[in-house]
Specification:
alpha/beta, five-stranded mixed sheet
Length: 457
Amino acid sequence: MLIKNAEINGRITALRCRGGRIIEIDERLTGQQETVIDAGGCAVLPGLHDHHLHFFALAAARGSLQCGPPRVTSRAELAGLLRAADEGAWVRGVGYHESVAGDLDHRALEALAPGRAVRLQHSSGKMWLLNTTACERLQLQGCHLPGVQRNALGEVTGRLFRMDRWLQQRLSGVRPAVHETAAELLSYGITGFTDASFTNHQHTLEQFAQVPQKVVLMGDESMPAGALKIMLDEDRLPELDALAGRIRTAHQQQRPVAFHCVTRTELLVALEGLRMAGPRRGDRIEHGGVIPAETIPGLLVAGVCVVTQPGFIADRGERYRRDVPAAEHADLYRYRTLLDAGVPVAASSDAPYGPLNPWHNMHAAVSRRTRTGQPLGMAEAVPVSEALRGYLAAAEDPGGPARRLRPEVPADLCILDRPLNDLFAQPAALTSLQVRHTLIDGKLLYSSADSTSSVCS
């Protein structure tokens, strides 16, 4: 395949790929009985890598009801949405937040949709809420796993914490939209991703065989490679000695660790665990939802990369402005101050819990504004080039340098609808940018509807 009239590494040239790799880049290249794509002077980049998402949860969410802000904002809207679903079938809702209808238990949720088996996932991703009908179908009262919340009388409340794998096993007949979700990733130019699900285990890799993207997995202790995902939930934190033991064991197995850290307390526990166990190259802080300035030296000492999600500033910014004290706004999803201090930062979506579109997430990193245009932590804004680098760093080196197109590297490419200078000059253009083509190993796997005329064989 030949890609001509392409902006590559800052100049207009041509690129040929064969056997899954780039074999030459030269403006003098001409077609040789091969597929030719005319880039029309637009940018050709290495395929983007999303450094933290949850693929099968994302696929399942694409077939779920969106039950939280901004789509649903009131109890009446939620009730109408749930009651419109098919009676008798499982109703799966995602994105729920207390601002919609309060802290629901199984009875309150049942009253919103009587007789329908409903399960709502909280917007944090850590809790599922079941109504009475769903609790009865799953015989939840007889389940005594620690994630099942019970009241003072020993009755289930319908709230399940970190029990995704248990639910998956009991609802295994529900098929997520795997191919559609992979196609959506391709439409954004995403050729690889790191699946950060703590439920991944030694047999999970088989499930990703049908996904065209290049996948890196983190997961539990049963996995032979990849980062050990350590979930730190502020309301049930591990003993520090036990935490340090898990870290040491992972490091002895040549595995880095990746900490789920949304709150200040979770971050402090992670840093103390690393201090006790000793750091290893590749250790990561996932999210960094709250990073007080005084913890930044500790991040440097630990040598960790922070894998952040700037999209939350746009997606949940209004909620943060309302619920988080103004003095702490600067601590939310830091970016610029981490880089200035020498802490590596990689960008990601946390989809489906955060917005997936990487170009919109880059704009959020650049603008630091909420959906309504309100500023939030403006000192953390980064230039377009840095926001882009966050998605161009190699999967094995998040926070590292941006990959560059050159001979012999895999032909994982995305072709944009404009030159990079347009984005550098007008960052707002990130929100309207379209990917025209996406290739993985030199195979054209996605073309936008208005770009087919630029491809010929």
